[in-house]
Amino acid sequence: MEKQTSWMDRYSRQILLPEIGGIGQKKLGKSSVGLVGANSISQPFFLYGVGAGVGKWGLLDPSLSSANNLAFQAKSRNPNIEVRVYSPKNLKEDIESWVKQWSIVIDASNNHVIQQKLTSACQLTRTPIISAGCDGSTGWILQAPCPFCLTSTPPLHSTKNQKNWVENMVPGLIGSILAQHAILFLLKPPKIASPQLTNFTADTYTLLNKIPYKDPNCPTCHITS
Amino acid sequence: MNTDAFIDITADNCPMTFVRVKLKLEEMSSGQTLTVRLNGGEPIKNVPISLQDENYTVSKPRADGNCFLLTVKKP
Ligand SMILES: [Zn+2]
User: Mean of the per-residue pLDDT values for chain A?
Assistant: First the structure.
């Protein structure tokens, strides 16, 4: 924990916000995020998150060098945070134990198989999760996904393997919106987390915010749209 | 005048003046009062407005040497 004076200086703009204040700022400092994926979605997310003062981080990516690089950038932005880097190969625990140590898991893997695995592990351990991804000009953020709905209503991302609309623009934007979602969540976790989708299409500039995402026949989630 | 807590922000500049007062008030309970010692100029102009914006009841400033005293009540 940094000294009180530098803590106040660093976060003064957030402490001034009625929605955060000193209480919210301390809450963020005690929060932890398990971030999956070291890529152009997780980079802006991570940097905004550490700037906001989320205290403890775990970064999981098959490429330890990408993860270490991102961890280094994050520590340069805010040296008071704690970051640990993990690779799926070197994971000592099972995925359930890994997810449940965090206040929230952020899946930026942009990979449907990993997304399903993480979603199931989070549901089993009652760990909050937000998933995000993009393909071409479309990006999405899925809050509290349901494993059944994810499996029965296939991926939000297409498999067309389009080229990025503008290099890194859509992932950058999605990563930034994701940071806002996660910080709001950490400050005030919703009582009931129902699957909600935020969708962005760059070519038409359409942002659909928090629409229910579920398979109508899902036996486990009961939300009305 | 009776007060539950006291803070001197004459050594601070805006916006740290309000940050300090706000953090102090967050530690206090509803109904308690805080006396704030602050400078004229920017602090006396800004701090009461910021407090009122966050629903605190603020007294009229009283002179205290070259400085001012405010009493703030937590809603
Ligand atoms: Zn479902």
Answer: 88
- Chain B residues whose CB is inside 8 A of the A8 CB are 16, 19-20, 23
The Cα–Cα gap between A53 and A223 comes to: 33
> Edge-to-edge strands of the sheet including A129-135?
A82-86, A56-60, A32-36, A104-107, A129-135, A138-143, A196-201, A206-212
- ipTM comes to 0.85
Q: Residue A95: its pLDDT value, please?
A: 96
Q: Which of B5, B14, B28, B44 is catalytic?
A: B14
CA distance B19 to chain A (A): 6
Residue A159's pLDDT band, with cuts at 50, 70 and 90, is very low
Distance CA A37, CA A41 (A): 8
Place A162 in a pLDDT band, splitting at 50, 70 and 90: low
pLDDT at B2: 77
- What pTM was computed for the model? 0.88
Report which residue type is found at A134. Answer: C
Our CA angle for A194, A172, A195, nearest 5°, is 5
Q: Which whole-number Å values give the CA distances from A68 to A37, A56, A60, A84, A88, in the listed order?
A: 12, 15, 10, 9, 14
| Cβ-Cβ contacts under 8 Å, B16 against chain A | 8-9, 12
Taken in order of first residue, the domains within chain B and their CATH numbers are 5-73 (3.30.110.40)
Out of A12, A22, A23, the one facing B16 most closely (by C-beta) is A12
What tokens does A2 get? 């940094």
- Which tens digits make up the pLDDT trace of A168-192? 788 999 999 999 999 999 999 988 7
Q: Does residue B17 register a pLDDT over 50? A: yes
Domains and CATH numbers, chain A: 31-224 (3.40.50.720)
- Are A12 and B22 a contacting pair at CB < 8 A? no
Beta bridge partners of residue A59, listed in sequence order: A35, A85
Packing angle between helix A4-16 and helix B16-27, nearest 10 degrees? 90
